[in-house]
């Protein structure tokens, strides 16, 4: 959908201001939205699991971007101070 020459944000993911494309999060939520609209219980369940898994992968990536102190020790071969 277009609004004023720009795509309309998706109701679930559009306002995050993040590129969710590599993990297919937006597509998964669009599929979930379609399944909910069709009221097909099996399709809703499958689409829900898919959306949750993709969202989990995306949020894990966001956490890893911030870094992990344990990774620094592994890369440098150092030992934690005792």
Provide structural commentary.
The protein is mostly helical and about 80 residues long. The chain has a domain at about 20-65. The protein has helices at about 25-40, 40-65, 70-75, and strands spanning about 1-5, 5. It is elongated and about 55 Å long.
Shape: elongated
How much β-strand is present in the residues? under 5%
Order of helices and strands: EEHHH
Can you count the helices?
A: 3
Taking all Cα atoms into account, the compactness measure Rg is 18 Å
Q: Reading side by side through the largest sheet, how are the strands ordered?
A: 1-2
User: Which consecutive residue ranges, at least 5 long each, have pLDDT under 50?
Assistant: none
Q: Residue share in helices?
A: 55-70%
Mean pLDDT: 75
Our measurement of the CA-to-CA distance between the termini, rounded to an integer number of angstroms, reads: 58 Å
Number of beta-strand segments: 2
Largest sheet: 2 strands, antiparallel
Class by SSE composition: mainly alpha
